[in-house]
Amino acid sequence: MKKLLYFVLTAALLFGCKKDDNGTPCPVSGATLPTSSAENPIQAGSAVTIQGSGFTAGSEIWLRALTKATDDVQATVTGHTSTSITFTAPTTVSGEQSIILKQDGGEWPLGKMYFAAAPDIQPKKLVKSVLTDDEGTYTANYSYDDAGRLTRIQTSSTGDSFYEGSKIEYLQDKIKISHDYDEVVDWEVEFLVENGQVTNCIEEDKEDGSKYETKEYAYSDNGYLTGFVFSLTTEGITDTYAGTLTAGENGSLEKYSIVEKEIEDGGYYGTYTIDFTPNTSVPNNLNLDLIGNDYLFGDIIGDHAILDAYLLDIGGTRSKYLPKQLTLTDADGESFTVKYEYEFAGEYISKIGIDYGNGNNATLELFYEE
Predict the structure, then answer these.
(1) Residue 72 and residue 103: Cα distance in Å, rounded?
(2) In this structure, is residue 322 part of a structural domain?
């Protein structure tokens, strides 16, 4: 989902940070800004990380229009170390902006970036979702911190006296998710993040000690996640698989594939492909990326290293539209299709009908903050 990055290109530009108007040398050396352009601007609300040496807790990042027709805008800093600083792209700026460092009583230009205008619809936070199927009702409640970042998902189902949930912690260059069952953590996920994009994910089953690692995340020039390598280590044996993703010309997820690579135990994961047909009249949610919603796609895309990355907006540029349907085809050529119907309350999706075929249906209701 809230908001984290779906823009950054892998290249970076190096700018000199010299002296301020009083001749004071810049306290940060080697400032490196993520690449952006008019064609690939930084999206409003996304996370931006600047590398360099000398940042402190007192470092501030301001954006200044090149025409100086408007006042400088201070960005919200969400994390820093001595070698990097991360801020949220403001929703009140657009176009080319000078990036200004204010620190120790002085100010210094670090370079320039292009920013996209904020969407006309300001995102209301998704606070609850309710899935209803033939077996019962499953509810998820979402909590956020002051910066608008998702911090907790609390889930329950009809007839159960326990709760399951996920706690999300934002550390420097890391995001940690602790999944708990009746308040006991049984699964932990740790993402390594660079410039707002996940580069590595380690999942650990706290019950049997199995570790899953997803690495070698690859991104296209316009920021879409295009591939990854997944491995599972159990009792000293490691199975490795590769995955690919394809985005279409309209910016929507079109294909998700898992292929076997170096199988050691006869094929734990298997090979399959999911073909998505986008519904270009249904834009993705502005708050939490619904491609990462466990109730919506968790039974189809089984990799939390991908689902959670989308949900937290560290999986690159998000899919612009939600699917009209998807078709999963396995290694034997057998397939099934899932269809989606959407209802709206104003500009926001309020209900999604899910048709799994063979008479199996479900409904996902979405509720937003007032």
Answers:
(1) 15
(2) yes
**Same-domain check for residues 29 and 159:** no
Question: 295 in helix, strand or coil?
Answer: helix
Backbone φ and ψ for 304, nearest 5 degrees, come out as: -70, -25
Q: Which structural domain range is residue 282 located in?
A: 126-368
Residues 142 and 63 in one domain: no
pLDDT digits (tens, 9 = 90+) for 111-153: 999 998 877 777 899 999 999 998 889 999 999 998 889 999 9
In DSSP terms, which residues pair with 275 in a beta bridge? 255, 327
> 355 — phi, psi (to 5°)?
-110, 110
Instruction: Provide the phi-psi class of 209: left if phi over 0, else alpha when psi is between -120 and 50, else beta.
Output: left
Task: pLDDT band for 9, please (50, 70, 90 cuts).
Answer: very low
First-residue to last-residue Cα distance in the chain: 19
The partner residues of 245 in beta bridges, in order of sequence, read: 256
Question: Residue 4: inside a domain, yes or no?
Answer: no
Task: Tell me the C-alpha distance between 246 and 308, whole Å.
Answer: 18
- The predicted-structure confidence for 17-51, as pLDDT tens digits, reads as follows 665 566 788 999 999 999 898 888 888 878 899 99
Q: Residue 120 falls within a domain, yes or no?
A: no
- Residue 277 in any domain: the answer is yes
The total number of structural domains in the chain stands at 2
- Output the pTM of the full model: 0.71
Rounded distance between C-alpha atoms, residue 325 and residue 338, angstroms = 6
- Judge contact between 17 and 29, C-beta under 8 A: yes
Four-CA torsion 190, 222, 88, 22, nearest 10 degrees = 120
Q: In 3D, which of 96, 113, 155 has the Cα closest to residue 8?
A: 113
Report angle CA 113, 115, 119 to the nearest 5 degrees.
170
Biggest alpha carbon distance in the chain? 74
